[in-house]
Every structure is written in C-alpha cells, then in structure tokens.
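Before the break, one more example. Copy the sequence into your notebook; we will annotate it together after we see the structure.
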Amino acid sequence: MTTLTSDTIVAEDTFTDAVRLEGYFNLSISGTISGTSIVTVQRSMDGSTDWKDVDTFTKATEDYGYEPEFMYYRAGCKTGEFQAGNSIVIRIGREDKAR
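Here is what the structure looks like once it is written out:
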C-alpha cells in the first residue's frame, strides 16, 4: 500500500491534505478519539472548493472505499467537532499500481 496523506489532528477545523483518488482506497483512523470528536471524510471535484461530506466516524477504524471516477478526498474535524486532548491520526492510502 502507498500512503497518500497522513496527518495528526489536534484541533478543530483541521483536515489532511487533499488527495486525488480513483478506485479502491484505505482509510485509517487511530490515536485518541473520544468524547465529542467526529472525523468527517469529504469529497471535492477540484480539491480546493465545494467539499461535500461523505462519511463520519466517532471511533478508531480501518476501512476502505471505492471511487469510480477521479475525485479529491480529505478527512478531519470540522469546527465544533473536536474534543480538546484528543490526538487523531488519519491515513489515506491505496494500492501501489506501479508494481
């Protein structure tokens, strides 16, 4: 697997870098996520505007998704959805197609 972006979220209104995806991809959420924290996964056509919420998580998870066309994804905590003291590690990756 190839890591496309990996960040530790320690404040509200903080997201991973946007990554362009097509096909299957992995989402890993780990670290300390408790209380009122919500991790939101968002999708955008251009990677900079018009972010749409596609899923939310309130606990650690190892998950995967499928995107049938090229889209940009990011994940993080929106304003009011992060509890102080948490340290949420988010990783988005995919299969290394170069092999």
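The domain at 2-94 is CATH 2.60.120 (Jelly Rolls). The mean pLDDT is 94. Try to locate both features in your own notes.
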